[in-house]
Specification:
Blueprint: H1 2-9, H2 20-24, H3 32-35, H4 42-59, H5 62-74, H6 78-93, H7 98-126, E1 138-141, E2 144-147, H8 151-179, H9 188-200, H10 210-236, H11 241-244, H12 254-269, H13 275-294, H14 302-306, H15 317-330, H16 343-349, H17 355-366, H18 376-383, H19 389-412, H20 414-419
Antiparallel strand pairs: 1-2
Helix pairs in contact: 4-9, 4-15, 5-6, 5-12, 6-7, 6-8, 6-10, 7-8, 7-12, 8-10, 13-15, 17-19
Protein name: Solute carrier family 13 (sodium-dependent citrate transporter), member 5
InterPro entries: Na/sul_symport_CS, SLC13A/DASS
Organism: Jaculus jaculus
């Protein structure tokens, strides 16, 4: 059965088939007492489904694209740049692990800071500004200028540079920890709380779910993030709102231009938005939408509309997470290419008996039962007016599935014996096309 389901639905991984009972349970197709006892707790499945989605986001660098795009939009003034790093890190930490978010953001911070430092050093070395001798800053000689910098000013610049490094690194790790608190799946303790609520207080009637927790924790996360940003600004960067945040029409400094260039180069390395990134983004947005709309509290959610009150307990946030996780395994990572005419040639090139491909295609062409235009017999019967298109679709959909299963069965059982499909025949080495 699992093999047939894998063949029909084109699952990319056989293991993902074993998640289907968790999806079928709310439909009352399976008996919970006999099936769910074999699986983990609801909180574990919620964490597992969220983790699969997070891995998909990381696999296709969608999180990095979002981070760099936001940072380019925020700008490169120190205070705004720090706020941008903290906002992006906190947002990503809401959906993927704190560790993965920090590990992704810190190299970006490091590369940007190193480029800013290199630009600052080069600018200082190439600077030639003649000053009057009596100010003690420069001695002008014929044909050249020697600049003597104040040691106190140099030490202050070094101190500011070290403080900038410290502030930028700390803001990332702080934001990762703070952002994880905003969602129920953002960090481990939140999931543990949900599990304890379900175990110790089973009559709480889903009081603690994704929507209710987000409504409570997200404002707290925003306040905490803002206060952390202000504290780091005051402690490390001698915060000046007008100087650090407001663009007063002046040109960007060389360091800010260098930082912007680093971010732009990193973003350009990602290339255009890929087909896989679009699919992952759609699944990610679908996951968030289903979580919020399941039981929002201020209005009826799809949970109460789709199931009766005594049956709503079977569809939880974990059901949504597993559904989207399965969807990620079904959706392709590359844009499908329809290549009907070269299947025989491909089978010959890989040493596969051509009949193993040609026979199923031939039989399947006759097993089209859903629409009046599918086959001439369907059209003739439909023309008499006793059938509607919906009637043919209802019965024809099942007939199509039966046809696929029968073709699969016949080709892989007695068809193998009759046509010797397990061996590549000598007559298939050459293909003659008469024109």
């Amino acid at each position: 059965m699992a093999s047939a389901l894998s063949y029909v639905s084109k699952f990319k991984s056989f293991v993902i088939l074993f998640f289907t009972p968790l999806l079928l349970l709310p439909l009352i197709i399976l008996i919970p007492g006999k099936v769910c006892v074999q699986y983990m707790k609801d909180t574990n499945m919620l964490f597992l489904g969220s983790l699969i989605v997070a891995v998909a986001v990381e696999r296709w660098n969608l999180h990095k694209r979002i981070a760099l795009r936001v940072l380019l939009w925020v700008g490169t003034k120190p205070a705004r740049l720090m706020l941008g790093f903290m906002s992006v890190t906190a947002f990503l930490s809401m959906w993927i692990s704190n560790t993965a978010t920090t590990a992704m953001m810190v190299p970006i911070v490091e590369a940007m800071m190193q480029q800013m430092e290199a630009t600052s050093t080069a600018t200082r070395a190439c600077r030639k500004r003649p000053e009057p001798v009596d100010k003690g800053k420069a001695i002008e000689l014929p044909g050249s200028t020697v600049v003597f910098e104040d040691p106190t000013m140099q030490r202050q610049e070094d101190r500011d540079k070290k403080n900038m490094y410290k502030a930028m690194n700390l803001c990332v790790c702080y934001a990762a920890s703070i952002g994880g608190t905003a969602t129920l799946t953002g960090t481990g303790p939140n999931v543990v709380l949900l599990g304890q609520m379900q175990e110790l207080f089973p009559d709480s009637k889903d009081l603690l779910n994704f929507a209710s927790w987000f409504g409570f924790a997200f404002p707290n996360m925003l306040i905490m993030l803002l206060l952390s940003w202000l504290w780091l600004q005051c402690f490390y960067m001698r915060f000046n709102f007008k100087k650090s945040c407001v663009c007063c029409g002046a040109k960007k400094k060389n360091g800010e231009k260098a930082a912007y260039q680093v971010l732009l180069e990193e973003y350009q390395k990602l290339g255009p938005l890929s087909f896989a990134e679009v699919n992952v983004l759609i699944c990610f947005l679908l996951l968030i939408g289903l979580w919020f709309s399941r039981d929002p509290g201020f209005m009826p959610g799809w949970l109460s509309i789709a199931w009766e009150d005594e049956k709503t307990k079977y569809a939880s946030d974990a059901t949504v997470a597993i559904f989207v996780a399965i969807l990620l395994f079904i959706m392709p990572s590359q844009k499908p290419k329809f290549n009907f005419c070269s299947q025989t040639e491909e089978s010959r090139s890989i040493g596969l008996n051509p009949l193993y491909v040609m026979i199923p295609c031939t039989l399947s062409a006759s097993f089209a039962f859903m629409l009046p235009v599918a086959t001439p017999p369907n059209a003739i019967v439909f023309a008499y007016g006793h059938l509607k298109v919906s009637d043919m679709i209802k019965t024809g959909a099942v007939m199509n599935i039966i046809g696929v299963l029968c073709v699969f069965l016949s080709v892989n059982t007695w068809g193998r014996v009759m046509f010797d499909l397990d061996h590549f025949p000598d007559w298939a080495n050459d293909t003659y096309i008469k024109t």
